[in-house]
Amino acid sequence: MPEKGVRSTYSQAPFRISTHDLGGQIATGTAFHYLHNGKRFIVTNWHNLTGRDFFTGRNLNEQARTPLWIEVHTALWQSPATEPVRYFGIVSRRIEIYGDPNAHLDHLWLEHPKLGGQSCDIVAILDPKPDQEPEFMHHSVNLISDARVPVLPGELAFVIGYPRGLRTGFGLPIWKSTFIASEPHYNVEVAERSLPAFFLDGYTREGMSGSPVFARFRGMWDAKDPYKPVNPNEPGFWNRDDVNIFGSEATEFIGIYSGRIPEKEGEAALGLCWRKDAIEQVCSAHFL
Fold this sequence. Notes:
mainly beta, six-stranded antiparallel β-sheet, Thrombin, subunit H, 2 helices
């Protein structure tokens, strides 16, 4: 762990995005990379790209502006590889989201193959890694760690993104702590829809939509099956190499944050975390 530098690889995963039309920037949000079947995707929320509320369909912008393209603000090398000391910085890179942006036709993002955009607030866009992108930045979230932890109600989860566009250093994100507020395996029922997501309880803000969510667990658990009961008194227990003992800590990517639930239900102050399996299904649509 460096003292002078980025101290968590999880901070190097998300990046800020902004939506644009011919009048300029409309809004900001968060996105991250996800590797699936050898392809790298930008993953964010449907409502970020459409500019429309996921539940009501209404335009989220007071001037009823609709995004025509997005810009990703990611780290790129600013000096050639031949230089003895190389420098990088955050550069805005335009990503097209429509085949014909003037008519909002032929959107280029992927949606859930069964639920579509109106029932699953996740989208993915193919994004091969640029040659100028440093190898240590913008890690695909599912490659950072292969650890599995017990993802349980009441346990800590971090939403890492850009609340209201706020960032630090050279574009690093903000960590917001939340608690898992429902049983993660089961869909939530919101606005008469069954959604492949679970609730988070925490003080998140606009701009964090599209943030990766990581669960952190400290304690003792079976590394191969985190939901299998662990019994220290069973024969041979202390000779096992697949148990994380007391004091162990690990972090697992568990999903994507997409903001608070509708106004009426929103009085409960809950946000949604769409599960990792739903992200997999969205990215799989590229191969169908």
